[in-house]
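Recap from last week: sequence in, structure out.
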Amino acid sequence: MLIIKPVEEKERQKQFADACGIPYRAGDFAYAAYVDGVFTALSQFRVCDTHGTLDDLVLVPASSDVEALFILGRQTLNWIDLLGLHVCKCSPCAAPEKVLSVMGFVPAGEENTLIADMTHMFDGHCGGHCDIARELREP
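Predicted structure tokens:
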């Protein structure tokens, strides 16, 4: 079973970032994904007055569960959207390219930046991406 929880303790966030081989971002919020009770993936993200920024969306090196990673990413975007911020930006290196694409990120026009417009993303419309599991499996 997949469970996603906020990481409330900064020391725990640091441990998770280290386990994933990414920098710990002390100023970021974080969510962790657990599959059958085992830590599987981490998102680190921040918000400002106008948008959210996804800094990292990564699996632990021993995992290949891209569906869990996708769901963790969507949970992260949903939380940002619930704050009333309907735009999220990220670097193309923040997560696997396929995962970012299926999550709705597109080139922003700014160098090295992708953007996801979350307007209506979480109101029940699939936006043309109704078979996400199939899309994640395709090369």
